[in-house]
Design a protein that fits this description.
By secondary structure, the protein is mainly β. It has 2 helices and 11 strands; from the N terminus they run ααβββββββββββ. Strand 5 and strand 6 form a beta hairpin.
Length: 144
């Protein structure tokens, strides 16, 4: 019975605090609702024509209509990525392959992908800060 309930909760999506009790890392939850619950983030692995796997940032509205897919980035599927929404509705992704943080923001009706840079070392001044809990446990906030 507990397995049926867990499957139903995960299939419907859940908030960070709801999934934590099932020991799912907060930076790997999917589907993951935006802070205002208007959007849903998934990060599926997709296969190209040569059989290579890649992680794809995919954002949909609550009806399931896809509003954005990052088809340009090549986050290698046999390595790990970690993701999280920030309170301002940006999606953040940490790529374990190269240690680079990326973020996605909705700029007047169009999603934009930006590279933040390595942990603790943004490429530009004035960039928003990644949300707490984005990085995997083996990475320290200072990049060490």
């Amino acid at each position: 019975m507990a397995a049926i309930v867990l499957t139903a909760v995960l299939a419907a999506g859940c908030r960070d605090h709801e999934c934590a009790r099932y020991s799912m890392p907060e930076n790997k939850i999917q589907p993951l609702f935006s802070p205002d619950s208007s959007l849903v983030l998934t990060v599926p692995q997709v296969e190209d024509s040569l059989g290579h796997l890649f992680w794809r940032i995919t954002i949909a509205d609550t009806t399931g209509a896809v509003v954005y897919v990052d088809t340009e980035s090549e986050f290698v599927g046999n390595l790990n990525v970690y993701w999280k929404w920030d309170p301002d509705g940006r999606v953040w992704l940490y790529n374990s392959d190269d240690g680079i943080i990326h973020f996605y923001s909705d700029e007047p009706g169009r999603w934009q992908h930006a590279v933040y840079g390595p942990v603790g070392n943004p490429l530009e001044q004035g960039l928003p800060e990644p949300p707490d809990g984005l990085l995997p446990g083996y990475i320290h906030e200072t990049g060490q």
